């Protein structure tokens, strides 16, 4: 079938489900992003190649938001209802972004013509971009491969019809409406063509078609090396020309009292000498006025291995090309300014591990037991760490398990599943150096059937919870008001633990869970709980807040904010809202603020005293909330 003849300009005269604003569309895109990317990936023609298909699917989904504050007057948003339910079929925001994704994915499959300018979707995406790697979903089985081949033989509209049937569970009439709104000239013909492929719809949810769970392989290494050599020659030529231009007089400026560039700095040289490493004695922490990493003693069977320590310091200062270097967000990965403190040196699992501390950062060097090839160097920022945050360090990760080196003041270690608060903590054994036995880590888990936390009991008998978020220092878990958080229990996190997945590998220092409001639901439907989860980072900036609405055993994300002070000690006020449907089928706009919110107003309604509101909501009506504090200042919803 000729693809270009089956697509037309979208008509502005179809039925609309209502006006969709940017916030509504953005909320739907964020909540259903993996599903929308999968939809785009399946509709895109396989002839693009798996790498470009993955990047294009992400690019089209990320560009699905409306360009203006309000959309709907000129966008066709047909009313559909998914057979699966779940709220997507009745959400105009989701219907809008889904329509945009389908339309641009169909545009991307159109052939380029010399007589017309290409559409943006037909060109390789500017963002996202990945250099030096090819990305593609995990390989499936023979059934997935056969389905992909059958889908590749379909036209773009027929492929979209098949995917809307199978992935979105839309009835044929609703599929026809979506295709018509997307600009397909003959939706009925597309549905008829899709009938020629067996209805193996469950395979559409296979990892084979998941562009959010990817594998990486290098590009053409020989060609890349040639390009790098050519670039290096060009850079060297530019530097030589610049140096020649800067020779007269003082060049670009004198260096003042600095020594010549080739002079050796004594402090930098001392930082490379293993004999200059600081080694704290075993009992020094009991006499120290500080309970942080500076009080940790040097432990491990290899603290006297000068060759190992020299290699670790040399790689820290000058990591070679084969060294895998990683650093948490906002952490400098440079050489030490002077002699560091040795925390640990020993064999753990299949590696020799060295942990160092320079007053600002923890540095972990690891090399295989049988050589130095494949060494790794990890950096984590820890300036200003408290005793709770300096209680454990990751010393090894193997096959989804993690081992910790615990602080000398830790008297007991256990593992708790936050999703099972009634269950007790399982004891975690340690060796004589303070290294724990392996425990299952949630840092790389794809599902959230459990969430393990490390329970540490200090020398005063206080239990603290921390969890692995994929970095050297586990994140400290707290609960309660942001101005005075307390040590968390498993019960505090049982309903919000899975939200910790959003904070992985973000340089998170601590995460606080705060139940800031309870609300009686309309029509005697029970009560709801509002929680705000805030993740603070070691660098200070980049804090993340997440408001959740929980009712009837179900939970929903009400709002998210990144790089925000909301729900934190500096700005404890919070306000969030959700659209909620009663058991009788009536829709309401529910909202709740923290205790310092004295009144809440719904869009188009009157001011309601107190920190909660429940306003009847017409389908398609715009939903918005504002609140007032006791001092008269305005509070907006979390975003």
Give the strand tally: 29
Spans of at least 5 consecutive residues whose pLDDT stays below 50 are 1-5, 9-17, 247-256
Spatial extent as radius of gyration: 29 Å
SS field, number of helical segments: 13
The structure class reads alpha+beta
> Quick one: overall form?
globular
Strand content: 25-35%
The major sheet is characterized as: 10 strands, mixed
- Report the average pLDDT across residues: 86
| CA(first)-CA(last) distance | 45 Å
- The helix content, as a percent range, equals 10-25%
Give a quick set of tags describing it.
639 residues; 29 strands; five-stranded mixed sheet; 13 helices; alpha+beta
Structure summarized in a few sentences:
With 639 residues, the chain is of the alpha+beta class.
């Amino acid at each position: 079938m000729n693809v270009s003849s089956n697509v037309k300009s979208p008509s502005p005269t179809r039925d609309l489900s209502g006006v969709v604003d940017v916030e509504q569309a953005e909320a739907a895109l964020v909540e259903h992003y993996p599903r929308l990317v999968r939809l785009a990936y399946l509709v895109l023609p396989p002839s693009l190649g798996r790498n470009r298909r993955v990047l294009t699917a992400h690019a089209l989904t990320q560009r699905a938001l409306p360009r203006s504050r309000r959309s709907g007057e000129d966008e066709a948003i047909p009313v559909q209802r998914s057979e699966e339910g779940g709220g997507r079929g009745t959400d105009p925001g989701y219907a809008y972004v889904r329509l945009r994704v389908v339309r641009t994915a169909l545009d991307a499959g159109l052939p380029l013509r010399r007589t017309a300018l290409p559409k943006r979707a037909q060109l390789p995406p500017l963002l996202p971009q990945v250099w030096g790697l090819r990305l593609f979903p995990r390989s499936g089985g023979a059934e997935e491969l056969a389905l992909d081949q059958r889908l590749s033989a379909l036209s773009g509209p027929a492929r979209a019809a098949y995917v809307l049937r199978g992935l979105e569970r839309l009835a044929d009439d609703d599929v026809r409406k979506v295709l018509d709104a997307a600009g397909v000239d003959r939706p009925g013909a597309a549905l008829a063509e899709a009938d020629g492929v067996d209805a193996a719809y469950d395979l559409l949810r296979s990892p084979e078609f998941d562009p959010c769970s990817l594998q990486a392989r290098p590009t053409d290494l020989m060609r890349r090396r040639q390009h790098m050599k050519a670039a290096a020659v060009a850079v060297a030529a530019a530097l030589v020309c610049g140096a020649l231009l800067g020779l007269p007089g003082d060049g670009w400026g004198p260096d003042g009292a600095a020594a010549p560039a080739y002079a050796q700095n004594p402090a930098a040289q001392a930082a490379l000498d293993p004999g200059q490493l600081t080694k704290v004695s075993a009992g020094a922490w009991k006499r120290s006025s500080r309970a942080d990493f500076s009080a940790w003693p040097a432990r491990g069977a290899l603290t006297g291995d000068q060759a190992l320590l020299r290699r670790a310091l040399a790689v820290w200062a000058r990591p070679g090309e084969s060294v895998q270097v990683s650093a948490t967000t906002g952490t400098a990965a440079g050489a030490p300014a002077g002699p560091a403190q040795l925390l640990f040196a020993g064999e753990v699992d299949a590696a020799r591990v060295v942990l160092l501390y320079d007053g600002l950062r923890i540095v972990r060097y690891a090399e295989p037991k049988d050589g130095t090839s494949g060494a790794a160097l990890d950096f984590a920022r820890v300036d200003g760490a408290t005793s709770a945050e300096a209680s454990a360090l990751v010393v090894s990760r193997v096959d989804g398990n993690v081992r910790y080196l615990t602080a000398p003041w830790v008297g007991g270690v256990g593992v708790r599943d936050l999703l099972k608060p009634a269950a007790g903590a399982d004891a975690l054994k340690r060796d004589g150096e303070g290294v724990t036995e392996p425990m299952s880590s949630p840092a790389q888990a794809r599902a959230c059937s459990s969430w393990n936390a490390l329970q540490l009991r200090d020398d005063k008998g206080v239990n603290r919870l921390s969890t692995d978020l994929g970095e050297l220092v586990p994140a400290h878990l707290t609960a309660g008001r942001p101005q005075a958080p307390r040590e968390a229990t498993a019960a505090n996190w049982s309903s919000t633990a899975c939200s910790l997945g959003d904070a992985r590998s973000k340089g998170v220092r601590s995460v606080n869970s705060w139940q800031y409001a309870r609300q009686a639901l309309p029509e005697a439907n029970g009560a709801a709980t509002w929680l705000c989860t805030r993740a603070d980072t070691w660098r200070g900036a980049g804090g993340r807040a997440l408001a959740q609405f929980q009712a009837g055993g179900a939970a929903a994300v009400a709002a998210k904010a990144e790089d925000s002070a909301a729900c934190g000690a500096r700005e404890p006020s919070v306000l969030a809202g959700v659209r909620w449907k009663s058991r009788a089928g009536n829709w309401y706009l529910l909202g709740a603020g923290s205790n310092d919110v004295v009144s809440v107003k719904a869009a188009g309604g009157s001011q309601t005293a107190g920190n909660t509101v429940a306003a009847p909501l017409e389908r398609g009506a715009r939903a918005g909330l504002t609140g007032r504090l006791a001092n008269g200042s305005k509070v907006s919803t979390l975003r």
